Amino acid sequence: MESKMSEAAQSPSVSSKSFPVSSRVAQMSASKTMAVSTLAAQLKRSGADVIDLGAGEPDFPTPENIRHAAYAAMEAGQTKYTPAAGTVALKAAILDRFAADFGAAYEPNQVISSAGAKQVVFNAVASLINAGDEVLVPKPYWVTFPEVVTFAGGHSVWVETEAENFRLTAEAVERAITPRSKLLIVNSPSNPSGLVIAPDEFERIVAVAVKHGLYVISDECYNRFVYDPIKPHSAVQLPEHLRRRVLVAGSLSKTYAMTGGASVMRWGRASGLRR
Questions:
Q1: Fewest beta carbons within 10 Å, which of 39, 197, 223, 240?
Q2: Is pTM, for the whole model, over 0.85?
Q3: What is residue 9's DSSP assignment?
Q4: Contact status, residue 252 vs residue 258, Cβ threshold 8 Å
Q5: Which of 193, 120, 123, 143 is nearest to 37 (CA)?
Q6: 139/160 Cα distance (integer angstroms)
Q7: CA distances from 18 to 6, 9, 109 (A)
Q8: Under the phi-then-psi rule, with left for phi > 0, alpha for psi from -120 to 50, and beta for the rest, what region is 86?
């Protein structure tokens, strides 16, 4: 699809002649997700009947109670700087949600908030990965994962899943591990496949990673996008000895349709690792 995109639909590259971009940025690719969405919008303007499968955009508006709460907070003057990792009240709300939904107990110093789950993933990878480190990325994958790894100086190692109908298994993860492996990124429900890793297999996957000394990022942005008889499941339900090596990245953007909200509304959350 990308080769057929018009120049207008593609994000322009920044050359070293026009701007002194760093070598880290120069190695990264323009967002294919945004390129697809731009092309879809272009085709819609021309009158074409298009279903846009680019950005992960819920098909319902931000719930009324959230909109009203955001407005009330701004009217009350809650528009000033806050702690970078989130306010005390916000952290408490996140902990309460994890406890209510999954029976998980965490401490406030194990939770941070950010400007979206993408920043959570970026911060985690940038904090963990050194030049030459390998990051296991199961296929198919969200296009941001390998770009963040590249920026950090790491190397993405693909974990193939097609032979298992795109289901990630512990055996596939173990085959991909090398002495340079440092991090595994797991995304369930998967973007883009939508497949959900069963809880028992998820635990086996994390156990394999931990056995080999890897850390794990569990991207759970689509945690609520499951259908009966499947129930939402989270890495926070893992045994404590596994949880110590796992960072959970969640988001309000998908579950509560807040993808385009201002920074006061749109945030991601991370939990699990203690410094």
A1: 240
A2: no
A3: G
A4: yes
A5: 143
A6: 6
A7: 22, 21, 43
A8: left
